[in-house]
Amino acid sequence: MKLTMATNIYLSLGGNLGNTLEIFKNVYPILEKKIGPILHFSSIYQTKAWGNTHQADFLNQVLKLSTELNPQELIAQLLLIESELGRVRKQQWEARIIDLDILFYGHQVIQESNLQIPHPFLPQRKFVLIPLTEIAPNLTHPILQKDIHTLLLACPDSSEVKKLEL
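^ thats the sequence. predicted structure below, dont judge the formating
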């Protein structure tokens, strides 16, 4: 019998194709079935596209989950879920139906060809830092050794991140 310890993880959800609110609502039970229980949901935020700015606004949210999957199993499941929901990867920063990114996996630092944890762009993205601050302001970035709220205050991103009132 294999005994595994559950690890708390933080995921970023994003999307700007189709009915993103409905897609988010539909992905929650899939995440709980394939990844583990959702412990916290941030609010949902609307943001102008980042990187390739000539596309529709994005909706973004951060979730805290508990998982028994190891990091490679986790990324494999997230890519499978994206694919099952209709995401096709063609180019970086393109419009997408769903984007599921691992922000943190416990306090681990992982630098592999297909996986970097913590997410390397996290300190530069207000659309991730604002919802993450909402649910985990005191979480410490294991490389930068700063909490999420401090990273938000120092974030160079000047884009507007608007909380949706649902």
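The beta strands are 7-15, 38-41, 45-47, 58-67, 99-105, 110-112, 115-117, 161-163.
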